[in-house]
Design brief:
The complex is a heterodimer of chains A (224) and B (186). Chain A has 224 residues and is mainly alpha-helical. Chain A contains 8 helices and no strands. Helix content of chain A is 76%, strand content 0%. With 186 residues, chain B is mainly alpha-helical. Classes of the chains: A mainly alpha (224), B mainly alpha (186).
Chain lengths: 224, 186
């Protein structure tokens, strides 16, 4: 292992110019604009705008949708902020208020559905399709987001990736609203939660793996 | 450890220059902030060698993510966060490693080492080996004595006995096989 002074000399000798990262808010905004553009292209292919317009007359649906999209946006912003070492850990709480709105409104709709239809509210087939849509949307969005976030080489990749996963799952659930012919039932909510959980868990696993890679690389360099 | 405003400005200027490829400014910065990094690392790690390992890891991390420093923001806050974070990570890693390892000062006294009695057991086994060699046919016994006990080379043994190298090899191979089965059989 080289001495610390030798290591400094090595690092300085290999110090190429680097491109500074743009401010995290700007980076988050560019990623979100990219997603909005992709959404604008993809949604008309599968969305049912007649049904969507009809559903938007129900304020509870609108509140749930706003909660969903705000959770996505807030979690993505928080992930970009926390990917840098000198940002406050308090950023992690940013998605909490919209998440509560999302969960609260879904839960309320779910309860209303239960009261109104009883056991008929269990739409098994449709709910499974929701799971597929959320996961299906989340995979390409998640990969794109994690690549963006990886540019910052976060010191704590796991929470950053988990927030990114929440953001992506929120946005995917928002896209799902454009063709969601029923209100959330208990089972439906369960499928949504499972899909969001799966996306967050996969992202976190990626984060942990990144963390281990960073350690291994650093160890290998100090052993040289 | 609080730093003066002048130091903060100077380090920030050097780091900005380093991001643009100024190696002299970078080396000056890393050398100058070394005591500061050591003071942070020593809050978490008392052993000097371990502390120095952590300082090196902090330097490598700083190097790897130097593009994340924003000159509009305070440099020392950025640096101190990296240093603390890496020191804590090292503590966690140490904790994980120590969980799967056992430290026992009395191990030498408490547990037997299979290698410890090797010399004695070789001495104990020597008469049995000599008896086994004595039972070998003449050619094989000769090969063992010359090649293994007197440690001659094949060429030297061949010269001394007048036998070819390949004949010696065959005899040696057969002798070892016979000794192995005889000693195992005991």
């Amino acid at each position: 292992m080289p001495s610390t002074e030798q290591l400094i000399a090595q690092l300085a000798a290999g110090a190429e110019p680097v491109r500074r990262l743009r401010p995290p808010l700007l980076r988050a905004a560019s990623w979100l604009i990219g997603v909005a553009v992709i959404g604008a292209i993809v949604v008309p292919f599968y969305g049912d705008f007649g049904l969507f317009a009809e559903k938007t007359r129900d304020p509870k649906f609108v509140i749930e949708m706003v909660g969903t999209v705000l959770t996505g946006i807030a979690a993505v912003i928080a992930a970009f902020e926390l990917s840098l070492p000198d940002r406050s850990p308090a950023w992690a709480w940013l998605p909490l208020p919209p998440l509560l709105l999302w969960l609260g409104s879904s839960g309320y709709n779910c309860w209303r559905d239960w009261i109104e239809f009883g056991e008929q509210g269990w739409h098994f087939g449709e709910s499974a399709a929701c799971f597929g849509t959320i996961v299906g949307f989340s995979i390409p969005l998640g990969v794109a987001l994690l690549l963006f976030l990886a540019r910052a080489k976060p010191l704590a990749p796991t929470p950053v990736a988990a927030l990114g996963g929440l953001g992506v799952a929120g946005l995917a659930a928002f896209f799902l609203d454009f063709n969601h012919p029923f209100d959330a039932s208990f089972l439906d909510l369960g499928w949504h939660a499972a899909a969001v959980g799966l996306v967050i868990a996969s992202s976190s696993a990626w984060g942990r793996w990144r963390g281990q890679i960073n350690w291994a690389a650093a160890e290998a360099q100090t052993q040289r | 450890m609080s730093l003066s405003q002048d130091k903060e400005t100077e380090w920030s200027r050097w780091m900005t220059a380093a991001q643009e490829g100024d190696r002299v400014a970078y080396e000056r910065l890393l050398k100058d902030c070394l005591p500061y990094l050591r003071s942070i690392a020593s809050r978490y790690h008392r052993a000097p060698d371990r502390r120095e390992d952590v300082v090196q890891d902090i330097l490598l991390t700083l190097h790897r993510i130097r593009h994340t420093y924003d000159p509009e923001r305070p440099f020392t806050h950025w640096l101190a966060t990296i240093a603390s974070r890496r020191s804590i990570d090292a503590l966690r890693r140490r904790g994980r490693t120590e969980k799967s390892e056992i430290f026992d000062e009395q191990a030498y006294e408490t547990f037997s080492d299979p290698e410890a009695n090797r010399e004695m057991s070789v001495r104990d086994e020597a008469p049995a080996l000599q008896a086994a060699i004595a039972t070998l046919p003449e050619g094989q016994r000769e090969a063992v004595e010359l090649l293994k006990l007197r440690e001659l080379s094949l060429a030297e043994a061949s010269q001394q006995t007048g036998k070819s190298v390949s004949a010696l090899k065959v005899n040696m191979h057969r002798a070892l096989k016979a000794l192995r089965s005889q000693l195992k059989g005991d």
